[in-house]
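Input record (one chain):
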Amino acid sequence: MKAMTQALVDLDHQYGSGHVRPVVVHYLNSVVSGLLAGSYREAVGRELFAAVARLTELAGYMAIDTGQPGLAQRYYIQALRLAQAAGDRGYGGYVLAASMSHLAAQLGNPREIAQLARAAQEGARGRVTPRAEAMFYAAEARGHALLGDARAAQAASGRAVSALESADAGSGDDPAWIAHFDEAYLADELAHCHRDLGQAEAAARRAQESLDGLPETKARRRAIGYVLLASAQVQQREIEQACHTGLKAVELLETVRSNRGAEYLDDFQQRLEPFRDEPVVREFGARLELQAAA
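The corresponding structure, as predicted from the sequence alone:
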């Protein structure tokens, strides 16, 4: 199950959840449900619950990426229950900070983002490695930034950076579910914070850092990174450069089926609206219309 989950994660990163989610749902319903009905020694049962929690969280993420936030929330709640049954408070914190807080952001509930991230920090205190702590702090920073609280966002961001530096120095053996959270992922989180606080130069710098560290196989995340960078360039009034960067995102998103990517593009178009009469903006809009018609 762990191997299957990792394979599905890799496919999702490269092609988007629109292509992969039916496989996950079928696997959960046809294989995993049968395994959960079995009888096991306690240690095996806990490990099974932990593996199913990871796959269920992935199903929740894929529900978001296919435009079904209500369904995603149900998967996330189930993943929390499974993590609890597994006795894995660290992974429960991950579901709160990485999954449910990002869903809260998408649904426009910024105060809830920071609350969920702090709940993760408290519930998993002493149970997680510095890399996981870094992700929890980064999630809190996102919430503060969306609320416009620059001081609190900066404090949480600083704790995230320090925790990741400690992780990279070799403090603790990371579980598989957090191993992906590296400098590129943290830079992506911080780019969102700076963008939402109107700190355009810092947002552009962090977005570029993230793109420089992301492999080509993570097509959806790279596309979102390009939109983040383009949005920062709009904030800097570098409109021609922003449209050029935005086109890179469009090209990548043509290779994946991702509702999240489409939402980021919609947000970027709204940011371009004050400059809609400029030729380069009209050309960008025409390219998007061609893509939509294809």
